[in-house]
Design goal:
With about 160 residues, the protein is α+β, with helices and mostly antiparallel strands. It has one domain (about 5-155): CheC-like (Chemotaxis protein chec, 3-Layer(aba) Sandwich), CATH 3.40.1550. It is built from 3 helices and 10 strands, in the order αβββββααβββββ. It has helices at about 5-20, 60-75, 80-105; strands spanning about 25, 30-35, 35-40, 40-50, 50-60, 110, 115-120, 125, 135-140, 145-155. α1 packs across α3 (about 80-105) and α2 (about 60-75) packs across α3 (about 80-105). The radius of gyration is 15 Å and the shape is globular.
């Protein structure tokens, strides 16, 4: 996986989270995971197709999702209702759109799927990308919350 694919997502996640949540955002240490993995409880998945193929997953605990939805809507969420779910999907849209714009400026051409939201305990997301591992970039939000930006992308096999 080329770093040119990853950096726009990391940069976009950092700037969008910092702006929308009005909190300190720290990038944690990058690490690899298999593309088949358990989610933390709430995950927004965006698929990519074109010159590159794969997916970007924004993975978080339910507590983090409630915190993010509350901060973005200016209210307290105790249940991840339809507005809360739509808010997490919109966050994924905003980050991905900013990253894709940067990638298009670098000459990459591809399309996105609308974000799909997965919630629940002991759920696993699996992607059929062959030998591609997912690069994980933790984004720490203040003292208590974290979103993992999970990118699994490869150049399209022609």
């Amino acid at each position: 996986m080329r770093v040119e694919y990853i950096n726009p997502f990391v940069e976009a996640a950092f700037s969008v989270l910092k702006e929308l949540l009005n909190t300190d955002v720290k990038r944690g240490d990058i690490y690899l995971k298999p593309t088949s993995m358990k989610i933390m409880g709430v995950a927004a998945l965006v698929g990519l197709a074109g010159d590159v193929e794969g997916r970007v997953l924004f993975d978080m605990t339910k507590a983090t999702a409630l915190h993010v939805a509350g901060a973005m809507n200016g209210e307290n969420f105790t249940v991840l209702d339809e507005l809360g779910k739509a808010t997490i999907q919109e966050l994924a849209n905003m980050i991905t759109a900013q990253a894709v714009t940067k990638l298009h400026d670098l000459g990459f051409k591809f399309d996105l799927t609308p974000p799909a939201l997965f919630t629940g305990e002991n759920m696993e997301v699996s992607t059929n990308l062959g030998e591609v591992e997912a690069l994980i970039v933790p984004m720490e939000l203040g003292e208590s919350f974290k979103i993992e930006v999970n990118v699994a992308i490869r150049e399209r096999i022609k």
